[in-house]
Protein: Glycogen synthase
Organism: Salinarimonas ramus
Amino acid sequence: MSTVPARMAAAKAGEPEGGPGRVRVSAERGRVPAKARAVPRVLFVTPEMTGFVKAGGLGEVSAALPRAMRGAIDARVLIPGYREILAAHPEIRVVARLPAHRGVPACALGELVTPDGLIVYVVLSPELYDREGSPYGDETGTDWRDNDVRFARLGLAAVEIARGAGAPGWRPDLMHLNDWPTGLAAAYAQWEGVRVPSVITIHNLAYQGLFSPARMERLGVPKEAFVLDGVEFHGKLSFLKAGLSYADHVTTVSATYAREITTPELGCGLDGLLRLRAEQRRLTGIVNGIDASWDPQSDPHLERPFALNAWEGKEANAAAVRAAFGLSSGGGPLFAVIARLVHQKGIDLAIDAAETIVAEGGQIVVTGRGEGRFESELRALARRHPGMVGVDIGFEEAQARRMYAGSDFLLMPSRFEPCGLSQMYAQAFASLPIAHRTGGLADTIDDGVTGFLFDRPSLPAFLDAIRRALDAFRAGSRLHSMRRAAMTRPMGWDGSVRGYEGVYRRVGVG
């Protein structure tokens, strides 16, 4: 972005820069209402946030949880200054300059306020973040080679804010870190002698942020930290392990996943450390919620809004989905797949199950993007079954919402699923999830009541659950009963907020 170097020059000079589309340095570095000081102050550190930039479910949580905490917690968010954020928010005020640290470059710290009043700090470093692509990689999906420096910069910025580098009068009582890109913040705080407790939430243990130990000097990681009880993981520097080792408490996004990650099967090599955290009562599972926009009575994206028992609205959305995907009209069940097209999500199982679904009169619509082999196999599946299977490689929010609203069942055969949000979106829109009994799927789906669960990630087990779903569809009254149960189960953030408040108190905050 052409304006970024000028912005950074202004930040370094400490002078305002005029003209539209410019970041202005503010002499008034933000005011904190007096009542905000009476509640715990939490810095929520994240690599992504819906409304700014999103790659997955973490983005949804990062947008919703700090907002849901308001009132009980004074939460502010810290996120890297990606190209999308700078382009959409030229009003960002630069409130501080943060120093370089070894080979991690200096940066500016910006501040913006969302329309609903949430304060978001933005790490302004064009050389690290002003790029086309996702938060983690380029447009081909290849990880950025300097991701260690990019996210070390994020962690160091969190520690500087903990020192008081943000708005005057506001210093966090706790850092709430999220996934591997934030893990070094807990370690830097300890190495730098910054006495602020931290909690790290694991959204997906499979992604750990592994780098060569040759990068340690550039990142300012002490040699003595490269040990089993520190940042070392099978000869690599692990950002996630740094967070697990140095944070005061570890959370993850469902109670079942908290148990699963202490096992060799799903512990991704960190099960020993996580078992220790569980024994120390420093590991807690807290299931995510979904926000109030997931309401079929008011969602503006739907073909026709609908309420409990008003199934004609659901049928109107089904007709629109069938038309959009080129399917024939009919009275059979409509199945949806709305997911990243990767092995973890069991996409191969969904492809294999499709033949049975079509043979039973069902239709399938798929949207998502992921591994090339699955994209190709899904396109081939649609060609084999014209009018019965529709595939859109990509993702568009409005279309996905209509698919939840129009489908009868959501296929979710994930091999593991830390929490999952899709099953809750589906339930809110009266689409019954058919899912592997794992992680958050086990915690949010009541088998035979609000959806269907199967115990092993195998095709026979999956097909058995699909046949049970088809039986419910044909029964009619049972389908409607299950829809009502799914739509009325609690899915908001209140329970999650209470869980995090309890964790914060456990580490001495609040």
Q: What stands out?
A: Residues 111 and 121 are 5 Å apart (CA to CA). The chain has two domains: 4-29+41-289+494-506, 311-488. The two ends are 42 Å apart (CA to CA). The mean pLDDT is 91.
